[in-house]
Amino acid sequence: VTYVVEVNDLPIFFLEIKTPLHLDHICSRVDADAQMRARFRALYNVTPTPRLHGISVMGQRLAFYCMDKATGRVDPNSSGGIRTLRRRMGIRGFMAVTNDVKEMAAAL
């Protein structure tokens, strides 16, 4: 499932959600990473913000991604970045993304 948050019909954030069953197989995690990177490529030309954030979710595991529009670089720059959600780290990471997206949206 993909959720895209838009402002004025332009994407500013997206979330890719997979079932926890995908965690058991490395090929599923690599496929999820490839799907995230493909989504960044698809949204590159239409996102109005200097950065585009995306989060890949598998059960209670999250991977935070960010594309710098000026360079086209997507971080993390290699696959396998999905980690178990630790309450403190997960909340901090999610809030950092949320605050960055809100600031960029307010500037539009």
How is this structure best described in words?
The chain has 108 residues and is α+β, with helices and mostly antiparallel strands. The chain is 35% helix and 32% strand. The protein contains two helices and six strands. The chain has helices at residues 26-43, 87-106; strands at 2-7, 10-18, 51-58, 61-68, 74-75, 83-84. Strands 1, 2, 3, 4, 5 and 6 form a six-stranded mixed β-sheet that branches. Strand 2, helix 1 and strand 3 form a beta-alpha-beta unit. The protein is globular and about 40 Å long. The termini are far apart. The model has no long low-confidence stretch (mean pLDDT 85).
Summarize this, please?
The chain has 108 residues and is an alpha+beta fold.
Estimate the mean pLDDT confidence: 85
Sequence of secondary-structure elements = EEHEEEEH
Q: How many angstroms separate the termini?
A: 27 Å
Largest sheet descriptor: 6 strands, mixed
Name the structural class. alpha+beta
Proportion of strand residues? 25-35%
The number of helical segments is: 2
Uncertain regions spanning at least 5 consecutive residues: none
How helix-rich are the residues, as a percent range? 25-40%
Q: How many DSSP E strands?
A: 6
Q: What overall geometry do the principal axes of the alpha carbons give?
A: globular
The quaternary structure here is single chain
Gyration radius, in Å: 13 Å
Fill in the keyword field for this structure.
2 helices, six-stranded mixed beta sheet, alpha+beta, 108 residues
Annotate the secondary structure layout.
Blueprint: E1 2-7, E2 10-18, H1 26-43, E3 51-58, E4 61-68, E5 74-75, E6 83-84, H2 87-106
Parallel strand pairs: 2-3
Antiparallel strand pairs: 1-2, 3-4, 4-5, 4-6
